[in-house]
Design a protein that fits this description.
Layout: H1 22-25, E1 30-32, E2 41-45, E3 50-55, E4 58-68, E5 71-75, E6 80-88, E7 92-97, E8 103-108, H2 119-131
Antiparallel strand pairs: 1-2, 1-8, 2-3, 3-4, 4-5, 5-6, 6-7, 7-8
């Protein structure tokens, strides 16, 4: 999963849902943004803590766990990753890799507009939706 530096994310915190809103997180198809143009990777967080990762239709099973304090643990076969809350709404999930100032962007496939297919477009969308109306 590719990550991006995003200065806007900390400014959006007051508009963000918390990661503990599991009904918003689970049973959605979260598409990884960096790969939309070349291939399609979808993360499906299931309520039983199973994580389905579909890459061009080929599914790998992993585990996920909400650890509290807006942190999420993802266990893959060989590695585990700790993510911190960046931004979360019904359209976009921005996760910060713990210890780094970069974000992984995922877009809710059921809500996602075709234009949200790059990190730049996601940041423009967030700017239009949350920052500009309140200036």
């Amino acid at each position: 999963m590719k990550t991006f530096i995003a200065d806007i994310i900390p400014r959006l915190q007051k508009y963000s849902q918390k990661l503990d809103n599991l009904s918003l997180l689970t049973n959605q198809h979260w598409v990884v943004v960096d790969e939309i143009a070349n291939s399609k990777t979808v993360y499906i967080f299931r309520p039983n803590n199973e994580l389905l990762i579909s890459k061009n239709g080929k599914v790998e099973k992993a585990k996920w766990e909400y650890l509290g304090n807006n942190t999420l643990l993802i266990d893959l076969k060989e590695e585990s990753y700790l993510f911190r809350h960046g931004f979360f709404d019904e359209n976009i999930l921005a996760l910060k890799i713990d210890g780094r100032e970069e974000y992984a962007f995922l877009v809710n496939e059921t809500k996602f507009e075709k234009e949200l297919n790059s990190s730049e477009r996601i940041l423009e969308f967030l700017q239009r939706k949350y920052i500009e109306p309140y200036r």
